Amino acid sequence: MIIEIKNTDRVNWSMRPLPPSNPREKPSLFFRYLDLVERIGNRLPNPVSLFLGLAALVVVMSAVASWFHIAVVHPGTGEPAYAFNLLSPAGLRRMFLEAITNFTSFAPLGVVLFTVLGIAVAERSGLLAALLRSSVRSVPPLVLPAVLVFIGVNSAIAGDAGFIILPPLGALVFVSVGRHPIAGLAAAFAGVAGGFSASVFVTALDVLLGALSHEAARVVVPTYVVEATANYYFMTASAFLITICGTLVTTKIVEPRLGVWNGNAGAFDANTGAFDANKGATTGGTGGNVSAVSDYEQQRRALRATLITFIICIIATLALVVPDYGILRDAENTLRPFFQSIVVIATATFCLCGLTYGVIAGTIRTDRDAVKMMGDGMSTMSSYIVLAFIIAQFVAYFKWSNLGIITAVGGADVLTSLHLSGPLLLVAFVGFSVLVDLLIGSASAKWAILAPVFIPMFMLMGFTPEAVQATYRIGDSVGNCTSPLLPYLPIVIMAARRYVPTASVGTMISTMIPYSIVFGIAWTALLLVWLYAGIPLGPGVGAFLK
Question: How far apart are CA 538 and CA 227, in angstroms?
Fold first, then answer.
């Protein structure tokens, strides 16, 4: 989603700050380090070529590991996991036969494309622009970063949809008030990725991790029970900590490094919160043909009707969830079907609200208009679809080869052999979780490997499974910010290129490093204080076994 930018000859597309007023003033050592990371990262090949190379490397490494008969015992199943040679006849045959299946079953692809359908209608109908105008008038500029980070932190309730929706919206919000769009994008991305485990709500991740911790804990105590609310108190406090840290990093580090935004904010007037239709402002991601609505009262009527539609959607969702006989409850009366349906519910809500606004505002006159908006939105995803095909092969090869399991279990053995205890062990486990995040993307997949190893080990040292799980969640979240293998990173880069065409992997990683560092230090410190002060991690859950 973008605002059309005019007079591009006057736009400074560089992400570098303006020259300092004092000629002798030089960027700090930390800023120079980030600049170096950006230059190195941006010299990497195109992401498609990069993942092609990584896929080829996995194939070669699988052959080498197989020739040396490298294997580990899978901690979850107790079965040996051998390195599988992808260059063997069976491996090559599988690579040919399952290439299409790898692509069609690549989970992020379906989530991204499906979510875009709803967002496209909300965006191109003018709804998001209208909401943006209202927010610009009502939210003080100093509060914008905190709002973006906090919403991002709590977006985990909508699954992975936050990765797709919030970073582009954050950029748009910032550019509409004359601030650097990459800073707004980074703030939202930091909340979604870096604060992925922190939330004031119980999410699907709580359910998944709790179930895995439950099984691992029973290795030591057969009657032990780990609930989905095991870390609720700690993660609620963490949501506010991440919001504070993310706001400070955005305003004190990221924005000063990016410098003053000299790009033209197009037809958006930050003072009045209005668009000038004569300047050709559009809300379409590809510069669609939907002009901004000029009738202020008509927009107000459309927004009121949209609010009613939104409330109806909420009531309908509650009707499916709250009653014991609700459709989105399973046979055990849990909310797992609801958590698995959140992306569908969110997309339908976006679509219905966009249709309501568009019909009343006059930007949607027939069903053809709505269908065209969906098609235009989907057309912007062509580059991501190409990249998703390559990433899907890389992920499949890595899984088939068992290199991820071998590396994770081997690293766990190394950490165990260090014989650390107490706070040092917790800190080391946070760092180890960050490293594993670079190899395996899914939080639950990583925990399925690590929980059977570390929960029994920590329990024998006196820690509760809930404390071990909370420690893991910190490292997993912090690592998301700067992981070049995060499946949704290409989406964020695409959003950044709408304002800075040269933005690439190095641009985003160098921008996000300060968030990872600050989040990692502050969050780990909070954990240590929390555990050793005896504060419950969740309802009736302490840090140490009694």
Answer: 9
Beta strand residue intervals within 262-390, DSSP E: 268-269, 274-275
Which one-letter amino acid corresponds to residue 530? W
List all residues 6 or more positions away from 319 whose beta carbon is below 8 Å from its beta carbon. 326
**Residue 338 one-letter amino acid:** F
Under the banding of pLDDT at 50, 70 and 90, the label for residue 22 is very low
d(CA 546, CA 532): 14
The amino acid occupying position 297 is E
Structure tokens at 91: 């491996």
Does residue 380 contact residue 285 with C-beta atoms inside 8 Å? yes
CA distances from 482 to 80, 258, 331, 445, 503 (A): 32, 18, 40, 19, 15
Return d(Cα 338, Cα 286) in angstroms, integer. 34
Rounded to two decimals, what is the model's pTM?
Answer: 0.76
Q: Residue 269: what are its φ and ψ, rounded to 5°?
A: -105, 105
Arithmetic mean of pLDDT over the chain: 82
Within 13 Å of residue 485, how many CA atoms lie on the same side as its CB? 20
- Spell 461-472 as b/e; 16+ CB within 10 A means b: eebbbbbbbbbb
Q: Which one, of 509, 460, 469, lies nearest residue 37 by Cα?
A: 509
Angle 265-269-272 (CA atoms, 0-180°, nearest 5)? 160
pLDDT digits (tens, 9 = 90+) for 42-92: 787 777 888 898 899 999 999 999 999 988 887 766 788 889 999 999 999
Burial 329-366 (b: 16+ CB within 10 A, else e): beeeeebbebbebbbebbbbbbbbbbbbbbbbbbbbee
Token pair belonging to 199: 């939330």
Q: Which two tokens stand for residue 249?
A: 């990093």
Identify the bridge partners of residue 269 per DSSP, sorted by sequence position. 274
Q: What is the DSSP letter of 263?
A: S
Phi/psi of residue 73, nearest 5 degrees? -90, 120
Closest residue by Cα to residue 409 from 69, 82, 73 = 73
Instruction: Name which of 44, 163, 188 is nearest 515 in CA terms.
Output: 188
In angstroms, the CA 495 to CA 399 distance is: 29
Token pair belonging to 57: 């490397």
The pLDDT tens digits of the residues spanning 32-56 come to: 888 888 888 778 777 788 889 889 9
